[in-house]
Sequence to fold (380 residues):
Amino acid sequence: MDFKRVDSIPWVESLDEELLMNFFSSGVPIQEVTAIQWGVFLDGFLLFNWPKVLGFDPYEYLGCINLTGCIVPVDIGPIPRFKQRRIGAGPRYEEYVTETGALSRRFSKGTKVIWYSMPQFYDFPVKDRASWEQYKTRLNPEEPRRYPKDWEKDGYIQVFEEYQSGPTTLGITGFYGFGAELMGITKFVTCFYKDPELINDMASHWEQFTIQTLREAVETLRDRIDMVYWWEDMAERHGPNISPKLYREFLLPHYKTVTSFLNKNKIKRIMIDSDGNIQPILDLIIEAGINGTWPLEVNAGMDARTVRKLYGKKLFLGGNFDKKEIEKGGEAMRNEIDSKLPLMKETGGYLAGLDHDVPVTFTLERFREYADYLGKQLTM
Fold:
């Protein structure tokens, strides 16, 4: 990530739990798995209410690196949580209240894909200034439950100092992602025009909340944190969901405050995770103090070669192997890797991998074929 010479390009992936279930049925040792749990791991992100496989390291088994590695265990979600519960069910889907107060639909257990598909969120907890003021009480940075009960500085320093299975990572939710997840995309983006004062108040609160909540961890661990993983899904296939003008006016100053706080504590590698085509706002993202991006979705027109030629060493890059081509295997898979990896190896600052999570349709055989070929190409 620092554009220094390496002996091998790192290979990082993000493996979905339902994909692992499919792999287990194809020969991965399921007997090593101890449990799967729902809803108790936010991993530092606002609305990541997802299952986790425990007692088994699929990354070590499959030969790649977990993109987020060892995450700083600070909870920046709402406290107290909303009680997650099922409130309805039909033949195809079930309805839930999520821990963040949104209402969502998930496919029923009888359908083919349950976890991998994103829920359909259809109602949100923040609708106006009054509901925001009420929700804000759940975003108190002084809440003691934000840190683990076993938080002890020297112990965590040692853990982060010694971790070698991937990056040590601080997870942050971004200013667009925060508002869109609490209000829904349509309501949030129209508020930039209809109620800009509300947007300003939400962004200002999230800035101070983020810094104050993370301060002890950041000032304790400092550059033992290899990377900030800034979750900020703010684009669709055809471009960002917010114009450069609105980004600059409403969000950019808050990004700069947070990145300045991180930089002062010797944390220099800050990566944005945004799906979609973020090309039109990459200049602003760099100005905000962010110097890395993932996953570079091919279907949205993102291309690591183009980004590298435009921005050079201003951005380290991750992903961008077209998952659809890689999943085909054979010549299509090899051509996709061969078309991009040589330039990335030459210019550095690159983490090899797919342009998002490994699809749940990937077979273990196809993944192993991909792993075998890619592994031979990564050595410098």
Summary: The chain has a mean pLDDT of 91.
